Amino acid sequence: MSPKKTPTRTWSASGDLAARRRALNAASAREYAHSRHLAQRDVLLSILTPIVLLAIWETAARLGWIDARLFSPPTRILSQGATMVANGQLWANLLPTLLRLLTGFVTGSIAGIVVGLLMGVSRVVRAALGPMFTALYALPKIAILPLLLLIFGLTETPKILSVAISVFFVLQINTVAGVVQIDERILEAARAYRATGWRLFRFVLLPGAMPSIFTGLQVAAGSGVIVITAVEYVASNQGLGFLIWNSWLLFQPAQMYVGLIVVSLLGALLTGAVVLLERAVVPWRRANTLRKKRNT
Question: Both 43 and 150 in a single domain?
Fold first, then answer.
């Protein structure tokens, strides 16, 4: 009677399974190392690119390839910035701009999200306000400033409202789009589990609209910086916009460049803060993005 072969087959199957696991682990390790290498390369490029451009700018100004009176070399701009920090001139203009920007940004964001959610969940509200908001959104926000100055006078209110109005429309549009684009199958599943009213809003509509809301916040951050800078050009005697405009009037290009750089840094920091907040509030969006990058 011939011996049984079952133990040999079991051992062979177990060996194949272990080999597959080792192969998968090795592939995962290679994929992780490759993604880590790409991330390090991206960070290095983001640091080296502006350094190289600044070096070219400095060299061109020193060698006379460009007019140093108009394009102040980076070293001169850095020296001017240090002087402005030391004598308090930069802080005296940065703090008013920061206060106006943050107040208008927070106010406009809250109002835009609330109105956008109402329009997203109610077809009646969307039909009543949609066409009017579409027309008002096309109106340049800086064009509203004379009306605000006429109503509120030369106070802080028109400057803050200019930012708030600009931010409001961006958030309202993105929030409505986020609610309307939620998959109907998700809504049907929620209703099947008797999620209605506040529960439907809390666990389905709001989380579903969050990615679009944070996209709107990132866009609104840049828009708010642009608007407050433009407003301070013409309706303020303090702020980064005033600093840039006044430096142009007095032909002080190094000081003007300092103002421009600080404005760009302010916009980058505000956008970065929104991105960090998004990672904390909507962690699944980052996970989905990383998964898509791995698949590609």
Answer: no
